[in-house]
């Protein structure tokens, strides 16, 4: 299963992605978590704490035309094996990282390397048994610009607000312009009885699951901790278990 | 006065920008609200309406269709590609990603 988590800013993508990754790893999967946001946040939701490191700087070099490429002998599997960071429950994390004082120039090597790795993930036989969970930046940009070629499932995290729904609708429409991706809408921060209907009606999609507003989510983030470590028995964690059940048709538990 | 509003997703950039623009317009200032997000939502918080915001023309699309002559001045861009929002705010959306990149 190869999942990408998308939606508007603040919808809860990283928490959903990080918690899914941990739960799937506990269920016995080999899990690769991907953070392609230049303001990385997935590491926190995975339980690694804040982490800005650009991970693929050593994996890339410039060719004769000055374009970044993966070094000889480095394919997707090797990049994962050598440059990812192993976190709690054995989840491996690969991220863009964040631009630093050393400047955008170096950072771009990591970004370009990342793009090339994600394009090889689905084609690399030695990674065929892996579960992938990608956490995307806000909005439709990366979905539109082919940053998630690996995904067979797109989890659309959506709040019951117009801005969130319009964004989700746009991403769903764009993703369906490519074939072979199943879109699963997941409602987040639901507060009132009618919120599910409201989202479904305005979004034009049925929700594959939903999560009530849970203050423990913000509390975990305030402590810089993974939700699954801070509040393993919270309604949010259980809702994410159900989401995995729904999209993979199998049971996991915290 | 030229204000840029920045921050992480979901913190409230759009709500603050839209409300600020409306407030300033009510004091009598001419206000241009510029939405530079490729997922533009400023119309929602300005009060243009969600579905209307989703359909707004953008500068980029306006130039791409070639139906309108390119506007060499800022004022021309604001007049040609902008939309009227409540309290006299003029909303200009730079671009919106609606489709997969053909490249």
Polypeptide structure, described:
The complex is a heterodimer of chains A (254) and B (103). In chain A, α1 crosses α10. The model of chain A has no long low-confidence stretch (mean pLDDT 94). The longest helix of chain A has 18 residues. In chain A, α7 links the parallel β9 and β10. Chain A is of the alpha/beta class and 254 residues long. Chain A has a single domain, classed as 3-Layer(aba) Sandwich (Rossmann fold), CATH 3.40.50.300. Chain A is 39% helix and 19% strand. Chain B is of the alpha+beta class and 103 residues long. In chain B, β2 and β3 form a beta hairpin. In chain B, 39% of the residues lie in helices and 10% in strands. Chain B has one domain. The chains are: A alpha/beta (254), B alpha+beta (103). At the A-B interface, α5 and α6 of A face α3 of B.
Name the features.
heterodimer; A: 254 residues; alpha/beta; Rossmann fold; eight-stranded mixed sheet; two-stranded antiparallel sheet; 39% helix; 19% strand; B: 103 residues; alpha+beta; three-stranded mixed sheet; 5 helices; 3 strands; 10% strand
């Amino acid at each position: 299963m190869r999942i990408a988590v998308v939606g508007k800013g603040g919808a809860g993508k990283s928490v959903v992605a990080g918690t899914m990754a941990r739960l799937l790893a506990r269920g016995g999967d080999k899990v690769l978590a991907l953070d392609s946001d230049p303001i990385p946040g997935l590491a926190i939701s995975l339980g690694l704490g804040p982490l800005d490191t650009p991970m693929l700087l050593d994996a890339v070099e410039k060719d004769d035309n000055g374009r970044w490429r993966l070094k000889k002998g480095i394919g997707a599997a090797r990049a994962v094996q050598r440059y990812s960071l192993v976190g709690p429950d054995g989840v491996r994390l690969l991220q863009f990282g964040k631009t630093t004082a050393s400047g955008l120039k170096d950072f771009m090597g990591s970004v370009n390397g990342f793009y090339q790795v994600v394009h090889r993930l689905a084609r690399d036989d030695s990674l065929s048994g892996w579960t992938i969970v990608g956490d995307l930046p806000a909005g439709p940009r990366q979905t539109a610009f082919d940053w998630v070629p690996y995904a067979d499932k797109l989890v659309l995290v959506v709040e019951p607000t117009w801005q969130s729904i319009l964004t989700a609708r746009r991403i769903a429409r764009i993703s369906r312009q490519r074939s072979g991706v199943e879109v699963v809408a997941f409602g987040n921060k639901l507060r009132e009885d009618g919120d599910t209907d409201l989202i479904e009606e305005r979004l034009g999609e049925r929700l594959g699951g939903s999560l009530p507003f849970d203050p423990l989510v913000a509390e975990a983030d305030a402590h810089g901790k993974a939700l699954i470590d801070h509040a393993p028995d919270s309604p949010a964690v259980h809702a994410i278990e159900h989401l995995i059940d729904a999209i993979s048709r199998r049971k996991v538990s915290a | 006065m030229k204000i840029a509003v920045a921050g992480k997703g979901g913190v409230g950039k759009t709500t603050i920008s839209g409300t600020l623009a409306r407030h300033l317009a009510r004091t009598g200032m001419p206000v241009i609200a510029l939405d530079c997000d490729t997922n533009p939502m400023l119309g929602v918080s300005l009060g243009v309406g969600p579905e209307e915001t989703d359909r707004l023309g953008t500068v980029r699309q306006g130039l791409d269709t070639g139906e309108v002559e390119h506007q060499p001045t800022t004022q021309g861009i604001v007049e040609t590609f902008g939309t009227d929002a409540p309290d006299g705010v003029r909303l200009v959306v730079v671009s919106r990603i609606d489709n997969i990149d053909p490249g």
